[in-house]
Structures are given as C-alpha cells and as structure tokens.
Amino acid sequence: MMILGTTIKDIAKLAGVSPATVSRVLSGQTDFYSEKTAKKVQQAVKKLGYRKNTNAVELVTQKSHVLAVIISTIQTNAADQIINGIQETAIKNNLDVIILYAGEKNADLQKKALKTVIERSVMGILLVAIDLNLQNEALLKSAKIPFLFLSIGFLENRFPFISSDDFKVGQEATQYLINKGHTKIGFAAANSESNIGQLRLAGYWKALSQHHIKPKLDWAYDGEYTYEDGIQAMNYYHQHTDLTAAVASSDLAAIGMLNQAKSLGIRIPEDFAVISIDGTFLCTIMRPQITSVTQVFREMGVKGVETLVKQTSKPFKSLYTPIKITERESS
Amino acid sequence: MMILGTTIKDIAKLAGVSPATVSRVLSGQTDFYSEKTAKKVQQAVKKLGYRKNTNAVELVTQKSHVLAVIISTIQTNAADQIINGIQETAIKNNLDVIILYAGEKNADLQKKALKTVIERSVMGILLVAIDLNLQNEALLKSAKIPFLFLSIGFLENRFPFISSDDFKVGQEATQYLINKGHTKIGFAAANSESNIGQLRLAGYWKALSQHHIKPKLDWAYDGEYTYEDGIQAMNYYHQHTDLTAAVASSDLAAIGMLNQAKSLGIRIPEDFAVISIDGTFLCTIMRPQITSVTQVFREMGVKGVETLVKQTSKPFKSLYTPIKITERESS
DNA sequence: CTGTTAGCGCGTTCAG
DNA sequence: CTGAACGCGCTAACAG
User: Fold this and answer.
1) Residue in A54, A100, A281 nearest the CB of B98
2) What is the pTM of this model?
3) Matching Pfam families, A to Z (chains A, B) (predicted)?
C-alpha cells in the first residue's frame, strides 16, 4: 500500500506558482528561475513535506540512476569487498545501488532478480559470482541494459567480465607450492564443472607439467568451495594419496582442510601445506593463518562501476584484475 | 540511459486489440478476456519482446511489491542469515526484495539509502542492524512507509523491532559461565555506548549480582564487535586482571580473544573460558569451536517480512526472538 | 468480453 | 523568468 504524498501541484498551489516552476526549482536547474520564487517553493516544500516520486521522474525522463547488483549467496566476505568497491564508486558517480540476492544455483531466483531489475530499467547490472543458465542469459541480453560479470570470467569473451585470470590463479598457486619443494600437490574442491574450476585446473596442470610432474587423476578432488568440501578433500587425501600439499579453491575450503588435518593429526604446514584461493579476512583469523592467492575483490567492484559508467555504444572489454601470493603460515 | 522498449500500445496494434485488453491479459486478470484474444496478445508479446515498465505500473496503481532491506556492513555474517529468511518469506508473499547498504555509522550513506527507498515508495522497509541518527529517524518516520528494525531493540518501544532480548543475552551468557564455576568474568568489546551494549551489560551485572559477585569496573572492556577489539580485550585482561572467563560481544570479537590468548600462552578453555554472542558459522570453524549465545537470525528475517505483510493500520508490536546457549569447546 | 477515456506525478517543449 | 499543454506507459472506471 502506497500512501499518497504531496505532489508538485500541491506545493505549486501553496507557493502561488506553476507546477513547471516547482519542477525547475526542485530539480536544481540553475538560472531558470528567480531567487524569490525559489524561496517560495522551498518554503512550501518544507511546510508540506514533499517527497519526490521517482517512478514518475523515471517514467518521463526515460532514465535511471540506479545500478543493480545481483549477487549469489555470500559465504565469505569476498562479496562484501566487491560491494564496498561498488558502493563507493557509485556514490562518486551519483548512482544509487540496489542489491538483489539470486541464491545459489537457483534458476528461478535468478530469473526473478533479473526480471525485477530489468522491468525497472536500471542503468546497469553488475552480476557478482553469478552463474547464469541459458534461459536467463537470453533474458539478460534481451533487456538491452549494460551489464558486466564480476569475479567470474568467460572463455571466448562470451560475456564481458572483470575477474582474476583463473588460469593464472591455478598456475601461480601451484607454482608457489612447487617452489616450496613440493612435488605431490593436490587441488581440493576443484569445482571442475564450472568455467572457473576448469581454468584453475588447467593452470594447475600447466604448472605441474612445466616441472615434469605427472599428476595422478585423484589429486584433483572435486567440490564446490565449501567448508565441508575442504574437510572431505583432506580426508580423501589422507586415506588415498601421499600428497604433501594442496591448493584449496576457497578460503572456506582451506579452513575445512586445516580443521580436518588437525583432527587427523596432520601438522600444517610441516606435514601438509595449504594455499587457498581468495585471501579474505578468514585467512588472517585462522591459526595457522592461511597462505593465499589473494584477489582484489574491492577493485573489481570499483572497476565494474567505472566501466558501466563510461559505457559507450561499443561493447565492454573484459578485464583481468591482478592477483598476488600472500604468504602466511599454512605453507 | 534507458532504452525504450515496446509498449502495450505496440503489442495492442499488432494483436489487433486495445491496450486495455493487453493490460488485462498481461497482468493475469483471469476471466476478463477470451482465450482467443489472450493468444493473440501472447504471440504479439513474443514477437516484439515486450517488457513491463514497473515505473508506469506503480505510478498508476499507487502500489509497490518491493520490500527494501537496509543493512549496515557490520555483522555481515549474521546479516546473511537474516537476508535468507527475508528472501524466502518475501517470495512466498510475492514480494521483490532490494537490499541497500548503509555503511557503518555513516549518516550520509544512511540518508541516501533511506531517500532512495522512500522516493520509490517501497511497500516496507526492514532495517537490519542499523543505528539511525536523529535526522534520519525523522526522515524515516515522515515517509509513512511501514518499517521495522531487525536485530536491534529499543527501549520504551521507541521503534518497532524484532530482535533478541539483549538483557537476557547478557544475563544468560554470564549465568552460563557462573554455572561453569567462574566468578571472575569479563565482558569484552561491550559497546557500552549503544542500546544493545547497555542492555547486555545490564544483564551481565544482573547475573553477577544475583550470585553476589561484585564486578570490578575494568571487567567490562569497551569496543565494537570487531576482531581487533577482541584482541585488545584479551590483552588487557591478561595484563590488568585475574579474570578466568569472559563474554564476547560477537563471534568475531571472540575469535580475536582466542587468537590473542594463544599468542599469550593462555589455554582455552583451561585457563580462560569464552562465550560469544551470535553463534554464526564462525563459531564452528574455529578451533576450539566457540560456545555461544545463539541468536535465530534467520527467524528474525522471516518474522520481519511476515509482520510487514500482515501490517494493518495499527502499529507493530515489537517481538523478541528466542536465544539459546550452544555449548562448544571454548568453555 | 472489449474498447474508450481519464489520469497517476513529473519533466519538457513552446509561448509568452 | 514563468505558465500551459503534452505525454511518458500503464491501469481503472465506465460504457457498450
């Protein structure tokens, strides 16, 4: 239920001017009205408690200042960092930000979120860690609203994105462990069905092969970034392999590995080294602190908004943000 | 920039009917049109790729199906649970949810978020862990939009809210430690300037006094729910007190205490017991796992939406959600 | 069952 | 500098 408020007509009447004049004053069009009328209008506004009707404004102007962020369920604060970057940059550009949750692998929720923002004709859409199904891809494209994927990359530039180079992520993580003297290196919670997972695995294999290491098939343990997947991976490694180190596909997965290692009496990093992918605050509050391939999530958000704002008619160029190894205590 | 799409007029023309009929078909008003016309309309829609203009709809109907959630960046672990509850319940009630970040103690950001949702005349506003300043309180009230605070309570029913009973939170946490045999009990990162902090402290003192324990002034160590505050509290306790246990005002603060204890060679729980307030997943991934006063954040979200939906003209009744002690390894 | 008319609140011509 | 008139896209009221 919407409560009808005072309109520019009401305040026009009270101020003794026309609605058009009120509109000019309120939308801050300098030099199109006299000081005197401006004051009259502002007094009337204060008295009646006017509030703008954005629906009407956007309907007539055919423009929106709203930037929509569609996000999948947050498990770590990676998304928090991205959102902080988005928010800050949006403010600089005079944009309002609305965030919609699309759940996790829930096509219906995704669709609902997409429809919501499309039907409101937002000025742009940022998709954070969203894995769209085909139908929703079509929906997104048909809307003709500028959009950009964040923290998720695509092959062959299927969609514009800003993310880490996940091949390099896998490669550098593995290279780091090799440099530490390891030769039997796993990849835990690899998520091999996703683009990201495949790219990281490819990087992992590349690094191994560069050092003439032949990975066994079960060195890559599948999973989905979760704490539980980390636990299971460590369990499996312990029972079935002689690995001495592993890359974990997320901070949370790494924590699962650490905890399970402790349960099994495996010392980290003496018996087993772990490097995680993400580098959120979780890495620093764990003991041992977790070495990570650190992604610059905040920067993804910043760059994402900037790209959308500078948007011309030509398509976006996708962009890789830098990664770095942050050495801590788990390796 | 908004791209003009096809309107009901366009599809009306193609289908050979009037815009009103198109509107009826599209808004699913059953029994107000024939099968035949419905089909004609739907074909035209498919061909032209129509998408609804929600601004126009809301402008004319004076109604919105959008529920706005304003959220602060603090407590983001808990906020996830609240949002899940909100989202799920919103879907059941055919509501769209938009989330706005209001930063942390940032009056300008708060104001911006409030204005954004107010000027869009959302059907309701849920404020999650938001501490409004006076000016923004006035803004919120003046909007005449139903609202509700979540996870934050007020004295004297100044605003409607759904939260844990923070007096009880402080009292039961303390009582738990007393039951464990402790008599020298601190309260870390107490946040004594906030309503919540004061209520919890009051509960803490009550529990102590019920057992004839006279707390020293410096047993309550101030702070703001953060990891760093937890570290500092433990440091202080170690240097200046002979406490054997403490309540931590958040899971993150508790983690800070645990880590600092480890650095100082203090064993948890043998030398020092900790119970944290919140009970998010952080408690279970730490080693030792952290005993907590567990709040039902998800339920706050569910109840919040339900309350807003059932809203009549009379004011909300505020509501306490249950708490429980979840014993783990830190005590 | 369907078309016509009117108007939601606002910004924007176009005259004055 | 200001007002009158128009229309954004849509639904609701009222006829037919």
Assistant:
1) A100
2) 0.93
3) LacI (PF00356), Peripla_BP_3 (PF13377)
